[in-house]
Amino acid sequence: MAKLSIKPLADRVLVKPAEAEEKTLSGIIIPDTAKEKPMEGEVVAVGQGKKDEPMTVKVGNRVLYGKYSGTEISVAGEKYLIMRESDIYAII
Predict the structure, then answer these.
(1) How far is it, in rounded angstroms, from Cα 11 to Cα 62?
(2) Is-contact 82 12, C-beta < 8 A?
(3) pLDDT at 19
(4) 63 - beta bridge partners?
(5) Distance between CA 80 and CA 43 in Å, rounded?
């Protein structure tokens, strides 16, 4: 992965979403229109945190987040989500 030119501010986190499932466990191929939006990904950048709230997540953590959490952005042709740390449910 190339060095990113984006640095989240305050309690924001930049997440690279996991790839959507291509087929089911039984082998049925899922069309693009029926693919579920992934709810996990890898943290690629974190902000400094707020004055009284240090950041819990770190770069490289695998995280779970809400289905509609964050804002999609595109950096150098790659899709990312930028969200508040409070939108993250768990580190896995």
Answers:
(1) 17
(2) yes
(3) 79
(4) 41, 91
(5) 10
The CA–CA distances, whole Å, from 4 to 7, 28, 36, 58, 77 equal: 8, 36, 27, 16, 12
Between CA 45 and CA 16 the distance in angstroms is 9
Looking at residue 34, the DSSP 8-state letter turns out to be: G
Rounded distance, CA 39 to CA 4, Å? Answer: 22
The pTM for the full model equals: 0.80
pLDDT at 18: 87
Q: What is the pLDDT of residue 85?
A: 93
How many angstroms separate the CA atoms of 20 and 36, rounded? 7
Q: What is the pLDDT of residues 46-71, one digit of tens each?
A: 999 888 888 999 999 999 998 888 99
- The DSSP string of 17-42 is EPPPPSB-TT-PBPPGGGPPPP-EEE
Residues 8-33: what's their mean pLDDT? 79
Please provide the distance, in angstroms rounded to a whole number, between the alpha carbons at the two ends of the chain. 21
